Every structure is written in structure tokens, then in C-alpha cells.
Amino acid sequence: MRHTLVPILLLCVALVSVGVGVVAVIQRSRAELVQQFARDRQAQLDEATRGVVEALEDVSEDLLFAGELLSQPGTSGEHRRELRALLEVIGQYKVIAAYDAAGVEQLRLVDRRADPVVAQGRFFPELGETARRALERPPGSITSSPPLGGGEGGWLRILATAIPAEEGRARGAVAVLVDTQSLFAPLRIITSESEARLLLIGAHGRASPASDAGLVSWYQRLEAEPGLVPTYASLAEKMRAGERGTLLFQEQEAERLGMGRAEAVAVFTSIPLKGGSHWSAATLVSTIALRSHERGLIMRLSLAALLVTVFLLAFGVYVFLAQRRAVALRESRRHADRLAHLHDKTQKILDNIPTGVLALTEQGRISAVNQVLRSRMPSSVVGAPLAAAFPQASEPVMTRLRELVEAATREARVRSLLGEPLALFGEEGQYSIHAVPLEARDPEVRALLVVEDLSNIRALETQLLRAEKFATVGVLAAGIAHEIGTPLGVVRGRAEYVLGKLGAAHPQAAGVGVIIEQIDRVSRTIRQLLDFSRLQPAAVSPVAIGPMIRDVSELLRLEAERRQVRIEWELPEGLPAIAADPDQLQQVLVNLTLNACDACGAGGRVRLSAAAPDGSSAGAWGFVTLTVEDDGCGIPPESLNQVFDPFFTTKKRGQGTGLGLTVVAHVVRNHGGRVELESEPGRGTRVTVLWPATGPMATEERHVI
Questions:
Q1: Which residues 6+ apart lie within 8 Å of 660 measured at CB?
Q2: Which of 110, 279, 640, 672 is the most buried (most CB within 10 A)?
Q3: 154 φ, ψ (degrees, to nearest 5)
Q4: What pTM value is reported for the model?
Q5: What DSSP string describes 418-437?
Q6: In terms of pLDDT, which residue wins out, 644 or 461?
Q7: 3-state class (DSSP) for residue 29
């Protein structure tokens, strides 16, 4: 009991301490909360005044537009119709008038929907006065009148601007009587809360009708009694100066302004007009709600701490009562955890070994499959017969598997099929199958069928044999070059000397020529062997594939004509350059094209083509596809896997060395590409080379042989 409750009591004390600390932190950070509150209000005010600024800019643009209309050639009637359309489209405009450079009125239009006081001309003198003041300022500046009285409730203002002439001086002015109530509507949204008050000061320093009545009253008393509300006086001064910022009103001054018994936050900003004048807007918000929220948060935290403490005490009692039962359950749980651990460990081992394992019941049904086989079998094999695991296998194959399992179970020893060619999953592969019998204690797992896929091992063995052939070729090439190359050069030189002495008409000249030709053939074979064995990393550079294919076609044209074979090529526009050693790329194309010509009979056709990586004509990073295709005799299926082996050839004896495609494969791999071959006997062969592309070329390079 004592050992159980002590930690719980300590935790309760810690929770109480944390609660007290949180309350203290909230109280200490009240200034930070007020600052955050002010920043939020400043963001709201900035967002609202942004809409007002945009509305005032629209009025400025309308004035400039009206000035441009009056600047255009036309009669007075035409100008009147154009301004009438502007007046009727924008409902806030009540009167629009135009004046010459001397301030004499030239044109005046009154909105038909205007108040009778406006229509009777009460504010026409103020229109002219504002226009004359606008003529004294630079063209494009906006001049505002003081608030106008009357039935519109003080929302009417006159805005005017000078019309610029070609030499930069004003040649007239345009003035418009505007109902600004809708322009400042966004400011009313931010004062919808009961604690918020708005103060809006116009360009002439007077409070707007949108302002709170109490704030307006104190604003008018500031000149006589500034000491009663010094922070408010400072706010008014900053607003008239066009500043932007935040002020904190203490509780006494806020209460005097009618904001309640709490501190108040004032945020203010300017609303500029073109030409330097400005309006100013401020919102004063009481922090009563913030203080109430703070008290509520403290109470909720305290209540939560109390509830947690009570809960922990109750939990401690429950732990004490359940402790005796837990002792009895702990030992059984330990055994269960150990069994579960062993089961999970066994399952993970089976799922992660690279060999497939399949468990069978006494009735021969599947009870479990590991991950290797599960990915290759239908999802519903558990509970099905053995044949359901290999739906693509033939009946003879399944008969052998069932007999293997039955023999292993009957004889109580492992039975195996080693390296058998079986078509278990559709395609034939090399597999070793082991049937492992288990003890008869669990009827759900009576035997295991272990499936080893040896296909990849066979492929690696084939690659190893090929690599050994390549190593043998390298050693052979070095020995031949050293032991045969020099004597052959001497023999050929002597034969040429003899041929020169005998002359072309001598009866033995033809025989000597045959000696020289055969020596040249042996020399070519040696050279190919050396090229193959000494292939070095390619010094790549951007190579334009189009000119290269055209040059190879021209190089082999006479050879093709001699064999009565036609060489064609197809090149799309915009092929990217490829990263290649030009000489080695030419060697690849020449070898592939000559092989294609050799495979064709008289009248045959060899086609060279190229394509961009994505199959379109647009260049992109990736591989460029080079294709050499013929309609010749083709390659037998049993020889397709040997064509790239050294010294393997399907040509007649004496017509090929069997090294051409071997060199091609080595060159392509040395450049980071790959070679693919498709062939059908009697219908031709297609060799596809995927060669790495470079970036797009600024200009296509020309490669000359």
C-alpha cells in the first residue's frame, strides 16, 4: 500500500505545482497577451483600411479618367454624354464638374438620383473652391474638401484633381461630389464587437460621422482639456501626423473614455490620398474580454488539476485492490509473451528467408505461406488444396509434388527434387523442392514444402561463364598481338615487295595478292581483339546523332550497292545530342550496319533510325534510342543468347570473326547504355541501342568521318 500510494501522491503534488506555475506564468505574461491582442487588432485594421485605400484609389482613377475624356478632341455635348455615363454608373458620385486653367466652370452634371439639397446647388461653390485649390497642386494629386453638412449626414466630400497639359502644367481641373459612406464601410466591420470603438479623422483633421460619438466628443474637447486624457491626446496627434502604431490606455483613462473598467488598446493607421494628404483611422478596444478569458483559463486549469488529482487518488486505490490479482496474472502473461515472441520470431524468420515455405495439414490443405511464396500465389490459397497454390502448373508437375509430400510423410524423412526444370508460375524455371515431414502433434502443420528458385543462380552462372570467356579473350589478344602481329607485318611487307617486283601481269601475282589479303584479314582480327581487350573509359562529348547516321550511311553506300542492299535512315526533328566518343559511336553503327547488310540477300533493306527518350521529337534527359533493322535471314532462337559471345558467328567460315557484336556490346556498356536484340528467322533482325543523352544542344554539331 505504502509503495503504491507514495508515487501517486508525489505525482499529485507535482500536478498542483504545475497548475500553480501555469497560473503564475499566465499572470506574468499578461503584457505579452496584450501585445498579441494589439497585433491581431492591428492586422484587422490594416486589412480594413486596405479596402478603403483601394476604394479611394478607384475614385482617383475615375477623376483621372474623366480628365482624359475632357482632354480628347470632341464637342461639349460629347463630353457631357461621356461624363453623364460615368456619373450614372457609379452611385456614390452626386455631382461632377470641369473647370479651365483659371478655375472657371466649363461643365457641370448632377446625378438624377441626388438629394434635393445637392440638386439645388448648395455645394456648387465648394466644388469651384476645391477645383481651384487642386489647380495649385501638381497634376494627378487629389485635393479633398472638408466634410459638407446637409441631409447627407456629413459623409459628402469633394475630391478634385488637375488635368495635366502636354508641357506638364495644369490646363484645367475635374471635381466630383462623393458620398464617402460606402467607401469607409469596411471600417464598420471591425467595430461590430461591443468593446470596439472607431475614430476616423478626415484629411482636414475633423472627425468623420463613422466615429464613435463618445470618442468624437472627447476629440472636440482635446484643445480645451488635453490633460484629462493624455494618451488620447497623443493618439489624436499621431493620427493627424499620419503615423501608424499602437497605444495602451490605462484603466482610469479607458473608463473616462467610456471603455469600461479595464485597460484598452488603440491601434491606428493612415489612409493616404494621392498628393500627400491622408485620412486616419483608429480602433480602441477594451481588454475586458481578454481579462475574462484569462480568469476563465485559470479556473479551468485549476479544476482540471483538481479532477486529475481526484482521479489519481481513486486510481491508486484501484491499483492497490488489483495488485494481488496482478501478481497471479503476471506469471501467466510472461509465459504467454514468451510463446508469442517465439511465434512472432518464427514467423519473421519464415517471411524473410529468400526460400519459399508452404505448410500443409494432414488432409493436404495449405495452412500457412511465407512472404516469398505469398507474393507469387493467389491471395486465397490458405485453406485450399495444394493445387491452388500453383494454378499455372500442369497436372504432371502437381502429381510429382503431391507424391513427394506423401513419400516424405510416409517415410518420415526429407524428400527432394534437385534442380528440376518446372513451370510452377507460368514460365519454366529451375527449382529445388524439399518436402519436410513434421511430428504428428499438430494436425494443422503436418509437413512443409520448401521451394528454392534457382533461376537467378543459373543466370549468374551464365554471366560468370561469359566473363571467363571475356577474360580468356583478353589474355589471348595480348599474346596474339605480341607473338603474331610483328611477324605478320614482316611477311606482308615482303609479299608487297615480291608483288612489286613481279608486276601485275605475272602469273604468280594473283597468288601473292591472296597472301596479302589473308594477312590483312588476320591483322583485322588481331586489331578487333586488341580493341576488345583494351577498351578504355570513353572520352565522351556531345555528339549530334543525325549527322553521324547520315555519314555512316554514306560511308557504307558503295558496300551496300555492291551487295545490292538498300540503306535507309529516318531522323525526327529536335533529337538531343548523346554523350559518346565519336569514333567508338561510329564503330558501333558501322558494325551493326555491316552485320545487317550481311544478313540481307540481294534486294534487301537496312533501316537506321533514332528517337528521343520519350518517343517524341522533343529532346529530354534520358536515353536516345538508336535502331538498326534489316529484313534478312534472322537469327535462330537457340543462338540469341550467344550472339554477343566472343568468336560466335552465324556467318560462313572465313566471313566473320565473331567479335563485331562483342565489341559493340562492350562499347555501349562502356558508355552507360545497353543493347537489345529482337530477331525472327526469315523475317529479319532489329538491334536497339539505348544511348545516354546529353543536355539540349545550342546548335547541331556536324561529325565528319
A1: 528, 591, 594, 595
A2: 279
A3: 80, 10
A4: 0.40
A5: EEEEEEEESEEEEEEEEEEE
A6: 644
A7: coil
